[in-house]
Write a structure and sequence with these properties.
homodimer, 14 strands, Porin, 13-stranded antiparallel β-sheet, mainly beta, 3 helices
């Protein structure tokens, strides 16, 4: 069992109830990373499903949970021949913190009938890391993963944002851990908010995130291609497309989030 | 009250319960259109919310409801200063048919900080209608709306699919009815499945659809820009971006659906 498997473990206590222990190693400042929390919820949802793969996950972020014990409650809604549907709720101190709808199915790894080619990305040797966060920043998530950024998309760090919402990076776990659907849940929410590249700063809370697992990832590095279409009324969208080391589209996400007041 | 307003009416019977009457005029063959059903659910969700606009809607399509009486049950999850969260369930004959998570907020119509320009689209005078469906086909939805297609994207009708998942059309309601968030719920699921343009045929059931309301639409025609990134394992994604008559991005959707066996 890898460190990530352990940090996302969900232990069944009765039909539809799982005990989890939220790991302080996945924090972004105070709050825990939303992708990590989705991975925890998905452990329980897949355990409770007749199918193996979480093909669709929606999460509403009601309230930020803190590190420590919590529960995932699964309410099966329907299981058909192709897919099963369930409601999933992350509960802490008796209160719902994340509300989810999860669809599970079994992907069989067939060759695609149609696949849009990935957008261009420079090689890993031309990409750059973010500086290590200060220990007092509470950004413990950074130590869990390696991100190598397409340089212009972190130009905002030195006061040179590109002027458009975007963020692109290679991704892998810091500990030896091949990508799987749970790692992908983390990956779709692992980039700095795309609005940083459009000049915004500050905490940009996710309100809703939906992602789809489209294929099981090959071993190796993932590529995260993040972008946005509209920043307006204090809201922005962030799309992340994830490609595996073979270039296959393995996950697609969109989140609706608030622009920080940083 | 327009015909569409009437067809999507939700009458409060008690806290969290709304009576609705599903209109046979929104059928695509046997089943009712998913966008129409989302509009009905949103009437109830917005009525039950302290906020005016459904900024995020996720629907899992568990079972196809039939025309006639049904209920929408709303379970408020949290109301904050900026947004409120609710669970919404469409129930017919005592069974959940659609399960939803809805986030409401109030959009204030500010000028965008950043907006991606829309993809190119020929003028309406260069676009074409679909032939009227045969009465026995049960495609009653077609009469409710006018769609003018970018010609190559309905080449599949005469055996000339473009080879890629795409569909683009101008949209307005057939009866005088300016676009609003409920019309947008219909619009994001109003195009023929994008996979038809990649050579697939047959009933392509939506499994999950999430859409975001990004701005209130100006009066006039809408433009629906539909595309997909991957067709694999019997699954496909369909993205629809909706622009209003002023070119503003007003809605974004993605659905995960099954390829028909037509």
């Amino acid at each position: 069992m890898t460190k990530f498997d352990e940090a996302t473990q969900a232990i069944k206590v009765d039909e539809g109830t799982y005990d989890v222990c939220l790991d302080p190693g996945y924090a972004i400042g105070g709050p825990l990373n939303g992708g990590y929390l989705m991975a925890v919820i998905l452990r329980a949802a897949v355990d409770a499903s007749p199918f193996e793969h979480p093909v669709s996950t929606t999460a509403q972020f009601l309230k930020a949970p803190v590190a420590g014990p919590a529960q995932v409650r699964i309410e099966p809604l329907k299981a058909g021949r192709t897919a099963a549907f369930a409601r999933a709720t992350l509960v802490q101190d008796g209160m719902a913190h994340i509300e989810g709808l999860i669809t599970t199915a079994t992907l069989n790894g067939a060759e695609p009938v149609f696949e849009e080619p990935a957008d261009d990305m420079p090689g890993r040797d031309e990409c750059v890391k973010l500086p290590d966060p200060k220990p007092e920043s509470g950004m413990t998530l950074n130590a869990q993963m390696e991100l190598l950024f397409d340089p212009p998309t972190i130009g905002w760090l030195k006061g040179e944002p590109t002027g458009r919402p975007e963020s692109r990076a290679y991704f892998r776990m810091a500990e030896p851990q091949e990508p799987d659907p749970y790692v992908l849940a983390l990956a779709v929410d692992a980039l700095p908010p795309v609005v940083f590249s459009a000049g915004a700063r500050g905490w940009a809370p996710t309100v809703e995130l939906t992602w789809h697992l489209r294929a099981l990832p090959a071993p190796g590095w993932l590529t995260l291609l993040g972008s946005g279409r509209l920043i307006s009324d204090g809201w922005f969208d962030e799309e992340v497309e994830v490609r595996d080391s073979a270039g296959r589209l393995v996950a697609q996400s969109r989140q609706l989030a608030r622009v920080g007041r940083g």
